[in-house]
Amino acid sequence: MNTPEQNAPVHTAGAAEESRPSLSALLLDPSFWADWASVVGLVGLVIVFGIAQPVFLSIANLQALLLAAAILVVLSIGQTFVVATAGIDLSLAAAVMLGAIILGLVNAAGWGIFAACVLAVLATSAVGLLNGVLITAGKIPDFVVTLGTLSGITGLGLILSGGEPTMVGSTFLLKLASGSFGPFGYPVWVAIAAVIVAHVALYHTRFGVHLLATGGQVESAGALGIRTNRVKIAAYTISGFCAGIASVLLVARIGSAEPLINTSLLLNSVAAVVLGGVSLFGGRASILGPAIGALMLTALVNGLTLLSVSAFYQPLAVGAIVVLAALIMRYQK
């Protein structure tokens, strides 16, 4: 006769087997797609485009794809910190433009490329700081503040540049744009470093805990002694800092400071955050998810270009994916 001890392991294993969801149930669970939308989407695009256009999987194209995604990855990280507090930064693309213009003007004034890069990053960080102070001290909604700074910074950039692009000839920027270390170009390594630092800050520091607590329930976080206003200001400053890094990479890539806002940078940064499973209501965030989301969006545009699909249809495809991801997020656990 079996003792209860002998029967217990069999009973436990059976219970565990019954509680484990089947593959079909997992695929039909909307929360699974909410958590893994960017990964599944990226893998799906690689398979589809790899079959439709084998050049997509060539080493040269994959390296070009990663270089193109580096700027968006950095911007999506900055946007992630803001969205984690239940906010949004609409001034991101304008900050990139301002950083590029300041970089070009300071370099043209003979201050040197390193001073120009530092001042560009400081200027965009100041924009983020301004956003955070206006939102917290002024008690103004983030949408209104960042929409206002979007317009104001655009005007400031046009005034400073006179509406004319500034050529930036620099050996350092040329090497940054075209040089590589190992299998990846320098911009890709910058993006990887940004992902690692942001991941550590979000998950392994007190600031990260306070950030998610502030986004989850600001009143409760304040009751626990968290200085929520400082956390929000820091989040917007980080977003501005990331915009500055992106402006340096952008100038290095195109060789000039253009006084034009690339609105796709803003829209795609938000799209990458949504695809990465970051809650638009705050309190839930990741860094790797938005980074993969940025890769997915870049792969989508790259694949459609290789398939000779008109550029007019590309924003339509991106918009459809983002709306679908937002619908799936309703079921996020």
TrEMBL record:
CDD domains: TM_PBP1_transp_AraH_like. This is Monosaccharide-transporting ATPase. Its EC number is 3.6.3.17. The keyword RNA-binding does not apply. It is found in: Cell membrane. InterPro entries: ABC_transp_permease (IPR001851). It is a multi-pass membrane protein. Keywords: Cell membrane, Hydrolase, Membrane, Transmembrane, Transmembrane helix. GO terms for molecular function: hydrolase activity; transmembrane transporter activity. Pfam families: BPD_transp_2 (PF02653). GO terms for cellular component: plasma membrane. It comes from the Bacteria. The lineage of its organism: Bacteria, Pseudomonadati, Pseudomonadota, Alphaproteobacteria, Hyphomicrobiales.
